[in-house]
Amino acid sequence: MKIRILKLATLVLALLMGVVPVVAQTTHQVEAGLGTLPTAVSAAAAGDIIELITDGGIYYWEDRSSITIDKALTIKAADGLAVKPVVLNNDASQSTPYLFKLADGADLVLKGLDLDGRNLAGTPFSKYILRPNSSPVAEGETYSVKVLDCYLHDSAEKIFRAYAGTHADSVLFENCIIQGVVREVIYLGNGATPVIPTGVLTMRNTTVYNIGREIVYAKGGCDMQVNLENCTFDDIATDGDRRMLRIGDAAVLGTDSLADVHVLDCIFTNQGGYSEAFDINGAATSSFTFSDTFNIGTMDMHNGGTVSDLLAIDPAYADAANADFTLPTDSPLLTSGSDGGFVGDFRWTPQEHIPTTIYVAAGMGTLPEAVSNAGPGDVLELITSGGTYYWEDRSAIGINMELSIVASEGLAEKPIILNNDASQ
What we know:
The protein is mainly beta. It is 8% helix and 36% strand. The strands form six sheets. An eleven-stranded parallel beta sheet has the order 1-3-6-9-12-15-18-21-24-27-30, covered by helices on one side. It has a ten-stranded parallel beta sheet with strand order 2-4-7-10-13-16-19-22-25-28.
């Protein structure tokens, strides 16, 4: 009791002096392994940081359907890791597994993580990466989540599922890569009850590809704001009879929703075979502007929303089949944005190559591989004294740019280059 009185007296004195007490924040450094992340979340206090320190390590559990978050918490990769730490659920006993459940009061930040929907066997397993409570909650019971610089992939159903009657302050996906989702990326609601009465859902500077159904499907009434800004969307709605965006389902709701939808500076390419790409039952203030739509269906913007400054050109991605959506250096999309700038995810801005030195050890195929990975002006430095650099899979190494292949200084014997492909 004396301690409590002393703390209260100290607090009152601090407030009278104009000093705001600061809640202690602890950083928990956590190694990869079975159960280490759920244990750290349970031990953390509100405002703490959980730092995953194992380079490319797998953080998994086998004793629960998900990790429940009910406080302010940051889960991030440690600075300087070469490979993102992987978070996955491996509890085979669960019929509805997912990664994170957002309870009332959750204020979660996820940063620099590989959020994997697969189990340890590599099979899509978790239905959702993120979801709040499934039951309607009272007004004022809210959650928020920020997903920053994360790779979200291979969920068995969706990335984010919000149920009817649940309330978000904000949901943000920024600087993320999302791919390999069987159904919708974001699914809001399960009926006519409003899903996020006072909330903002934002996807910014993010790339989404290889998705079975919609990017966002808001089913029923959705009195919220949906923002898609500088995103690249490719190979969407591959499951056939599906749109790319479906905001407000009049068939379920009976009337149009009150969603305020804004799509700006985005690229939408290569939809599945359905004739309509966008069905937006939004407020009259909704807008779809300064975006590129190529090889997709039609637009249906209800209630008089603004549709303007749209392009319909092939972005000519560098290698979409291998998830390289870099634009050509002469692409009109580099200067067609709302501010005269970039359309799509900024990470795909073409970069001028800076010549570098690539060090190559002797062996079969090492030199052809180095040439394939090199850029204009690079120097391939052969570092093995007297080493044999050879290949057995081609008639010759093709060179189509300025390139230098040199021996390292100080080698006792010259490196040897030879072709050993007997089939030629």
